[in-house]
Each structure stands twice: as C-alpha cells, then as structure tokens.
Amino acid sequence: MGEASLTTLHLLATDPSAVAQAAELARDGHLVAVPTETVYGLAADARQPDAVKKIFAAKGRPADHPLIVHLADKSLVTEWVETLPDYFDALADAFWPGPLTIVAKKQAHVSDVVTGGHSTVGIRVPNHPALIALLQHINSGLAAPSANPYKKISPTTAEQVLFGLSGKIAIAAVLDGGCEVGLESTIVDISSATPRILRAGPITKAALEAVLNIEVDEPDVHTVAVPGNVKAHYQPSKPLTLLSTEELVARLSGQCEANTGVLYYSSQIERMISENSANNELVDLKLGADKAKYAQGLYHGLHQLDQSSATEILLEAPPTAPEWRDVNDRLMRAAAQ
After folding, report:
1. Rounded to an integer, what is the distance from CA 197 to the centroid of its chain?
2. Would you give the distance in Å from CA 27 to the centre of its chain?
3. pLDDT tens digits, residue range 86-128?
4. Strands of 142-143's sheet, edge to edge?
5. Under 8 Å CB-to-CB from 333, ≥6 apart: which residues?
6. Second label for 313, Cα 20 to 30 Å away, from 17, 209, 222, 301?
7. How far, in Å, are 16, 71, 316 from residue 275 at the CA level?
C-alpha cells in the first residue's frame, strides 16, 4: 500500500489493541498523531530519518528546526544523549514523566534530521499513559513536534489534528486521547553547569530552582533554535488582538464589528457580555481564571473561534506574574504581525 493511499485511522487511546496498532504503523515508517499531556504530537520513529522527514513535509516546517524525542523512561536517555550533568537525576526524578524537555549533546547515531543539524538533542518523557504504552511497544524514541501546520495553533484534540493537517501528507493514524496541560513543555538546556530555560513552559524557573538548589538562567526573550521559538507562532488564521481587561471593556463598550470573537477569563468581561447579549453579535468563549485552567483551554478556545463565524479575535490578556510566563510567551507569538 503506497503512502498516498493510506486512510487515516481514528484510534482510541484507551484501547490497548489500538495503541499496539499505532506502534506497528510507526515501526513501519508511517506518521502517527499522538496525545501527550501537553499538546498533540505528530510522531515518527526517531531512528528512521526518512520517516522523520515526513513530519517536516506534513507541517511545512523548516529542516533546521529541531524536534523533541519522546522516550518511555528516564533510563533510556543515555542511548540518545552523550553526557549528562550531575543534577540530571534530580531534575528527571522531580519532573518526569511530565512537561519538561531537556537539551543535551547528542549521541553520534542521532540523525541530523531529528536535531535540525544541531549537535544537541531534545528529550522528554511524557506523562500520558497511551503514549507511554506506545513507546514501550515500539521500543524506540518518537520524534514528535506539535501536530499542526507550521506556525499555526497547536492542537489539543484529535479533531483539531485532522482539521489542520488534512490533505497535507498521509498520516496513518490519530490516537484519540486528549491533552490535560494544553501548552507545550518547558525546554531546559542542561549541556552546561548552569541550566538554561530555552522555552517557557508549565515548569517554571522557581520550580526548577527549588528542586536543583542552583540558579537557573532564564532569558527575557526566548530566541534559541528550539521548537516554538520563532517570533510568529501558534497563530490562528484570523487576526488576533491582545487587550488588557480595561482595553477590552473599552472595545466592547463601543461598536464592535459583527461576529467579533472574544476569548476572555474575567468576571468583569463575562458580566459585560451577558448584560449586552441582546445587542451584540459576538462569538464569545470563556477561559478558566486560574493559570492551569486558562492554559488548558487557550489553544482549544483559539481553535473554536478560528473555525467559527468570527472575522477577528479579541483576547483578554492574562496576568503577567512569573507563573503565567509560558502563557504570555505563546500569546506574544500568536498575536505577532
């Protein structure tokens, strides 16, 4: 059966036989969209460069952008990484399985296709039972960036994967299992004595320092060549504008265009929309007010409004406290012009 003739299978992550089937497809060099606790990944066997190349073709992703290799267990890291610092065990024991990616010098066998030509490789042990089971079946690493077209919104449901990548290239299967965190992992460079955050994520600088008892470097702007660090990324197809609560109140108090999409979290905006519901044509969605709920619903809400009748999206910007850094990082890129 040729690649072009493949029909994408919709498999349930709760069905062990379906997970085994997805693993078999990956072993055969096909692409499989998989759930993680963060977002959906578009996965290929990391030991098969030709299979990994299909990821770049499907996403329209530049070949020099490295991918993250997902492993079933911490004990497998040394098969992919050449050297590890003294603090590695403390880091892995505290945050794996979970939304932490480490970057370290790669073993010679790790393909430049996976690393984007870099001498380092990103490694993560995910916290999703179906993906762990799949990794155990395949007995290899899975290279898996987010399962969306390059620079577009990361998917958190199987339906969003199919909507975004339909017709791009043959995807053998989508393993339907959902995502709980909703934002991509924290990426930390551990190739030197001082760990350095390369991409903000759910695991914060404070959380890392509390475990390691050493300083963790975190630049104000993340620009190193790691997944998700281009200026414009995570973007809906419709214009997105970030507004403070006060700015959004002012916009909603004026004359909004018909079918303006509003993604908000505060009770103030909720009351305002409710009180004026009979007089507007807004397409509105509410996010959770606490950080975890806001993050969990952010990409889903953007997807919903992007696929709605809304012609533009107004988003109530979240707080700027340190624990919201990953959310604000994604939104800055999502709204970049």
Report:
1. 16
2. 23
3. 999 999 999 999 999 999 999 999 999 999 999 999 999 999 9
4. 9-12, 173-176, 32-34, 41-45, 142-143, 68-70, 120-124, 100-105, 186-189, 196-199
5. 228, 230, 231, 232, 233, 234, 235
6. 222
7. 49, 50, 18
> Which residue's entry shows tokens 């404070």?
206
Pairing of strands 312-316, 240-243: parallel
Q: What tokens were used for 310? A: 């809304």
Q: In terms of C-beta density within 10 A (0-12 exposed, 13-18 middle, 19 or more buried), how is residue 316 classed?
A: buried
Q: Which two tokens stand for residue 228?
A: 């998700």
Query: HEC states along 80-139?
Result: CECCCCCCHHHHHHHHCCCCEEEEEEECCCCCHHHHCCCCEEEEECCCCHHHHHHHHHHC
Do 170 and 8 touch, CB atoms closer than 8 A?
A: yes
* 235 pLDDT higher than 80: yes
Q: How wide is the angle at C-alpha 222 spanned by C-alphas 217 and 225, nearest 5°?
A: 110
